[in-house]
Design a protein that fits this description.
The chain contains 11 helices and 8 strands. It is an alpha/beta fold and about 290 residues long. The protein has a single domain (about 1-20, about 25-290), classed as Rossmann fold (3-Layer(aba) Sandwich). The radius of gyration is 18 Å and the shape is globular.
Amino acid sequence: MKFKIFFVLLFFSIVITGVSEENTEVLEQTFPELKGLQTSTSSSERKPKLIEISSKSLRGKGKFLIYLPPGYTKNDRKYPVVYFLHGLGDNCSTWLDGEQNVAQIVTILIERGEIQPMILIVPEGEKGFWMNFPDASKLYEDWVVKDLRKYVEKNYRTLNDRGHRAIMGVSMGGFGALKIGFRYPEIYGYICAITPALPPPAQWSTGYLRQNHPWWLVVDRSEKLKNLRTIIKCGSADGYYEIDNSLVSLMNEKGLFCDWQVYEGMKHDAVYFVKSSVDGLKQISKYFAGF
C-alpha cells in the first residue's frame, strides 16, 4: 500500500504544474475592470487570519485561513460558508492571501453587491490529496469534514445547513472537493471543482484507491447524489480536460446535476485558477440565495 501511495504522489507531482507568483499581473489579467478600485473595508478587517487548532485527525495541529466578509464584526447575522481546498504545491494561504490574493477581489465584489457576504475557509492539506491515509497516520478528509467544520461552526456565526455550505477546490483540491462532496452530500449542498486532478479510473479500480476516486464514488453512490449540485470547470488547454469531461459525461448518464464550464485557451496556471474560482464564488452565491 505504501508503494501505491508513493505512485499516486508521483503521478500528481508530474502532471500538475506550478502557479505563477506574479500576483499583480494575475489580478490584472483576470479582472482588469477591478484594477485600481479601492474597498471601503480596512485592510486589517479584510485580511484573512491564520488559525491553528488541535486536530485528532492530523495527530496534532491543523492550520486554516479564514476570510470574514465586510461587516462581520459590526452585526450578529449568520453567514454561509465555502470551504476551499488548495492544490498540490500550494498551501492554505496561496488562494486567499498569497500569490492569488482572492480576498481582495472578493471584498470588492461583496461591496459592489455582485456576490453575497460569505465566510471563506481554506484548510492546510499539505500534499495529502485530501484523503485519509490507510495507516491512519494522517486523516485529511476527516480533518476537513469533522475537526475543522466543528471548530468553525462553534466559533463563528455560520448557517449550518447544507444549503448554505459549499466545498470547492482547484487541481488536487478539485479532486478533494469532489471526493469529499460525493461522500458527504448530506453536509455539502454544492461542489465547485476547478480542473480536478483525476487519475485514470482504471488505475484506481480496487480497494482503498477506488474508495477515494470521484469516478467510482459516482458509480457506486449515484442514488445518494441526486440532490447534490456540482459544477466542474476546466481550461481547454489543460491536461486534465479529457478526463474531467469524461466524469461530467458519466454524471449526466447517471442523471446527476453537473454543469460543465470550459475556459477557452486557458491552462493549469494561476490566471485560470483565480478567474475560475471567483466565477465559482459568484455561482455559489446564487445557489446560497435560493435558500
